[in-house]
Every structure is written in structure tokens, then in C-alpha cells.
Amino acid sequence: MHDIRAIRDNPAAFDAALARRGLSGMSAEVLAIDEARRAGILAAETAQAAQNAASREVGAAKARGDDAEFERLRALVAEKKAEIARLSEGAAAEDARLRDLLLTIPNLPLAEVPDGPDETGNVEIFRWGTPRRFDFAAKEHFDITGVKPGMDFQMAAKLSGSRFVVLRGAVIRVHRALAQFMLDTHITEHGLTETWTPVLVKEDAMFGTNQLPKFAEDSYQTTNGWWLIPTSEVTLTNTVAGEILDEGQLPIRMTAHTQCFRSEAGSSGKDTAGMLRQHQFEKVEMVSITTPETSLAEHDRMTRCAQAILEKLGLPYRTVVLCTGDMGFGAQKTHDLEVWLPGQNTYREISSVSVCGDFQARRMNARYRAPGGKPEFVHTLNGSGLAVGRALIAVLENGQQEDGSVDLPAVLQPYLGGRTRIAADGTLA
RNA sequence: GGAGAAGUGGCAGAGUGGUUUAAUGCACCGGUCUUGAAAACCGACGUGGGUGCAAGCCCACCGUGGGUUCAAAUCCCACCUUCUCCGCCA
Question: What whole-number distance in Å separates Cα of residue A323 and Cα of residue A85?
Fold first, then answer.
């Protein structure tokens, strides 16, 4: 959420930043509501102050036993009451109106973010590894002979419908190994604190990390009002909601491995084959809470943490900076990591690392205090480290052999009882 | 799920209808004293909003939301959370 004062102070800069995202200016509308709101507050508070003063006189009259004066003032104050109620209601309505509008305006891109209309405007900044040369036609993950016995979309359709999968045997063991490997790497080498959280959350949490109010159709809600998290960014980030942290506690670096649930209402028809895009998937997430001064450096650090996972797995990837037109709602700047998928002969997103500045902190009212200082909003960052299902796809497609078997990354061996490959018959070997 | 108890500032803890501003202690911060520190003493010490060039002034906030009253931390209702006991359960 935006700071109304910042918009008031420099409406032109605010509109210019929105324009970079392809949006029309909103400062005029925001400021008009803000003006009405402040006028309403002033009127209501002035009336309230008058009543408070009169009430004190009533008390004084009562105390000295002046019954006539007491009755006269009492009636006067009672008369004022309706007026105050009406004014307060108006002020509260304008205040809510402003907040509702501010909640729907996306974060502003940092100056260094490239301008662009959509993903075609993204800028590659780093590339690692060389895609392997195949002397046979590389298959997509679901077509690999050794994978087929362990990846059952028909069974999932029977249970749940489309965009779900049932995994069995070697395939799910590799999936589990990947998640364990990522978590272990983050906690032992990257200094993140492993955290386990609920996947059902209250509405407030979804507002805090800006899934709500704008993107309600992307997530699932239970009949009693809980939301299923689309990412553990929601729970990890909201751990600091409403808090005033000591500066010494920062940065807070967390990681969690959770189920994620997305209805993906807007993307039906995209990536329908295979398990690239599912309603339920697993992700190892990273979240950092920092001071304003350190958030950009933290963004690079977090990007490195995600890159390190891909490098240890030996998966070729590239890193792009998302352009203004492709960034998510809450981001100031985003790095996407795209892993090479031989079956699709292209790079596909496997991680997205964003710095949000104080955008989410304002929504959550998450602050910190430097010694002797005033509370200030923290900065928040989140990134995938990595999407486990997509990492599985990448491992399978990059390791596939002509005979239908799959060679697995060496770093996974400790999690696979020393085994190194999935045989063509679908068993670990 | 049932019964009971409790939610007050960073912490502890008073305050059951009104005599401006939530007592007091601890912690933190500034100062006096001291070679330095401690102790002692003095002072300052919450959050958000509005208004003003500023000093300042005003409004709200005692778990949350309603209500009663001229007036609510205090009385009433609902909800949330925590604790104790019981039930159930991986």
C-alpha cells in the first residue's frame, strides 16, 4: 500500500511511475478522496472536542451540586451527539474509501527496472551452464519412458480433475529429495531459518501480502472463511504483521517448504500438459525482513541463494530482470530464474525473487525501531528457492537418456540411498 | 467440542462510572555527581490520525467489534486469544 503523504507531496512522480507500468495516473482521484477525508476528519474531531469540553463542564456542575446547570448542559451535550455520529460516519466512510482505493494500486517500479509492455521487455542479466546437446529427440518430462510409471495424470483426474497429478515410486522420491536438498542447503549454507507454517490463513494475511483484494479469484477459500495459501510468502511474511521489531533482530531470513494452492483462473489453456502448472504444488520459499537500507543488497543475496540451488543441481538457467510491464503487483523489482527445459527447447520460470520495499509492510503494519528512534516500516522480500515440481521437471528432462532412463544430479544421492538414476522401467537404480 | 479464569504501555502491575492529561516500579534515553563506572538524584519517556511556518493544539487507542450513559479501562452483549480442567484425536 502506498503512503498517502508521498502521493500528496509529489503526485506527478506517482503518476509517472504508474505510467511505467502501463497504468493511467491515479493521483487526482486519490487526492480528491484524501481531501474529502481530511475535511471529514476535521469536522468530526472539532465537534468531538466541543462535546468533550462540554462533558467536563457537566461533571464540574454535578460536582458542585448545581443541578439546574447540570441539567441544562446535559441536554446540550445530548443534542450534539447525533451531529457527531453523523460527522464521524462520514469521515470513516471517506477513510475507508481511500484505503480501498490505495489497496488496489500496485507498487512502483524502482528507477533501474527496465521499461516494457510485457515479458518481451525482460532483460537477461546472467546465464549459467550450457544446455546439453541431445543426439536424440529430447522428450517432455511426462513422455520419458522411465518417468511414465510414476506420474499419473489420469488417476489424479479421477480424484480431483484436471491440473492435478499423482506421483509414485522413484519420481516422488526424487521430488521429496529435491525439497529436502533445497531446505538443507538454505539452512546450512545460506543461513535461513527453517519454518513450518499453516497453509490455511485468515483473510488479513492475504491482504498483507497483496493477494487480496485484487486477486481473490486466483486462490481458494474454505466455507468458513480461511484461504489456502498460494505461496508460503503469505505466512512467512505475515509472521511480522503488526510487530515493532528491534533493529538488531533484522534481517530475519526464513525458508519454508509447503503445499501451495492456486486456482489459476486466468490462465486456463496454458501449459495444460504435464505438471508445469498445477492447482496444488510444493514450493520451498524464502522470505527476508530487512531495514530499508539493506533490502536491495538482500535482493541480490536472495537471488544468489536460488541460483545456487540450480547450480548444485547442474541445471542450466538464466536470470532476467522483469520489466515494468511484467512485474507482479507488490514488487519494486523482480529477478526471474528460468531453467532450461530440453523437452520444450526453452527456458521456463522456476523462481521469482522480488523486493517489495515497504509496500507489504504498510499493509501489515510491520515496523522496526532503531535504538532511540521512531518506528519505521520494514522492507520485505520473497523468492522461490525453488518451485519443487518444476525443479523435478527440469531434473527429469535434463537428465533423460535415449533409452528412457534418467541420470540424476549427484547432490541428490544422499537423499536417494546412494542411487544415481531412474531406470527405463521406472525404478531407482 | 464442554466448563472455568484472564487479556492495561518494552516488561511488571494498580485502577469497578466523572475532580484535565492511565498510579507506581523496572528497563531504555538525556543530565547532575564521579578519574571512569555503579549508586543516588533530576528530567524525558507509547502508537496512529488531524491541524499549524513553528512552538504547540486537537482526536482516537486499556484484546477486537458493538451497546448503555451527559460521561466507560471501569457497566452490558458478541467475538478473538491465552491459561486450567474435561472430552476427542494424528
Answer: 48
Closest of A306, A302, A286 to residue A294, by C-alpha: A302
Using the CA of A34, which nucleotide's C1' is the nearest one? Answer: B50
CA A80-A82-A88 angle, to 5 degrees, is 100
A44 nearest nucleotide via C1' and CA = B59
Identity of the amino acid at A173: R
Catalytic center residues of A: 262, 277, 349, 352, 390
**Is A243 within 7 A of strand B by CB distance?**
no
Q: Which amino acid is at A411?
A: V
For residue A372, which nucleotide's C1' is closest to its Cα? B29
Q: Which of residues 365-404 of A touch strand B (CB under 7 A)?
A: 367, 371-372, 374-375
ipTM of the prediction: 0.82
Q: What is the pLDDT of residue A418?
A: 96
Whole-angstrom CA distances from A43 to A51, A96, A163, A171 are 13, 17, 55, 67
For A356-412, how does the pLDDT look when each residue is reduced to its tens digit (9 = 90+)? 999 999 998 888 888 777 788 999 999 999 999 999 999 999 999 999 999 999 999
Distance B72 C1' – A168 CA (angstroms): 63
User: At the fourth CATH level, which superfamily is domain A119-422?
Assistant: Bira Bifunctional Protein; Domain 2 (3.30.930.10)
Q: Where are the domains of chain A?
A: 4-102, 119-422
Report how far residue A124's alpha carbon sits from residue A6's, in angstroms, rounded to the nearest whole number.
32
SS3 A81: helix
Nucleotides of B under 7 A from a protein CB: 10, 18-20, 28-29, 47-51, 58-60, 70-71
Q: Is the peptide bond before A230 cis (omega within 30 degrees of 0)?
A: no
In order of A27, A127, A184, A206, A248, the CA distances from A284 in angstroms are: 38, 22, 11, 19, 26
CATH number, domain A4-102: 1.10.287.40
Residue A414 DSSP code = G
Asked whether residue A56's C-beta has any atom of DNA/RNA strand B within 7 A, the reply is yes
Cα A323 to Cα A13, A111, A335, distances in angstroms: 19, 11, 10
Q: Is there contact between A74 and strand B, defined as CB under 7 Å from any strand atom?
A: yes
**Cell triple for A259:** 503445499
